[in-house]
From TrEMBL:
This is ATP phosphoribosyltransferase. Transmembrane segments: none annotated. It catalyses: 1-(5-phospho-beta-D-ribosyl)-ATP + diphosphate = 5-phospho-alpha-D-ribose 1-diphosphate + ATP. Keywords: Amino-acid biosynthesis, ATP-binding, Cytoplasm, Glycosyltransferase, Histidine biosynthesis, Magnesium, Metal-binding, Nucleotide-binding, Transferase. The chain holds residues 1 to 225 of 299 of the full protein. Its cofactor is Mg(2+). Feedback inhibited by histidine. Its EC number is 2.4.2.17. Belongs to the ATP phosphoribosyltransferase family. Long subfamily. Pathway: Amino-acid biosynthesis; L-histidine biosynthesis; L-histidine from 5-phospho-alpha-D-ribose 1-diphosphate: step 1/9. Equilibrium between an active dimeric form, an inactive hexameric form and higher aggregates. Interconversion between the various forms is largely reversible and is influenced by the natural substrates and inhibitors of the enzyme. The gene is hisG. It is found in: Cytoplasm.
Amino acid sequence: MLDRSRLRIAMQKSGRLSEESQKLFASCGIKINLQQQRLIAFAENMPIDILRVRDDDIPGLVMDGVVDLGIIGENVLEEELLNRRAQGEDPRYITLRRLDFGGCRLSIAMPLDAEYTGPQSLQNSRIATSYPHLLKRYLDEQKVRFKSCLLNGSVEVAPRAGLSDAICDLVSTGATLEANGLREVEVIYRSKASLIQRDGEMSDDKQELINKLLTRMQGVIQARE
Ligand code: PRP
Ligand code: ZN
Ligand code: MG
């Protein structure tokens, strides 16, 4: 078992946010060796343990109080919030700081030849996505009825595979959409990385360490601006 007196931080193991998260830890003076395939890394110079997990699991780990801090995309965070609320839970966390990386947008995209004149074009359509709650919130507001098909990855393949009429997925450069013959028709959510903290009591030692890290982050981010 891990030592609960050490500050526990979750970061994405591999993907869009991992390199920047790692850089941020380094610039805050946390010495960690993330080279290996190890899923838990211990800081050498501070009482900090880093858990390297799937990004999608980070909001839940923070909301369940399993980790003290997490670096996560707001898109994944908001989706998990809506998901838990839909199940009757009252999930809690504290946003410590919006970060200056991980920018992307959650968009609806359609095959190049499909007609699109506005959200009403999606009436009674099937839309493949990993973000069913964010998609539903948006299309409910637009009074559009639709069916979502849940795919946890390679969502862009769905229209050509005959699974759906459209998709709703993250777009960063747009290269994945282009490579799959899709065009972005609607942006429904804009996201950046964010540092969040679990709700509930924190020991004085941990809170002091968190404050120290926040001050350093503030300096690092300001210097980059
Ligand atoms: C996203 C998204 C697309 C791709 C878009 O995946 O699902 O596949 O990036 O990027 P582009 O516009 O630059 O081509 P992500 O890297 O977030 O991985 P994940 O969905 O597996 O977490
Ligand atoms: Zn993911
Ligand atoms: Mg993806």
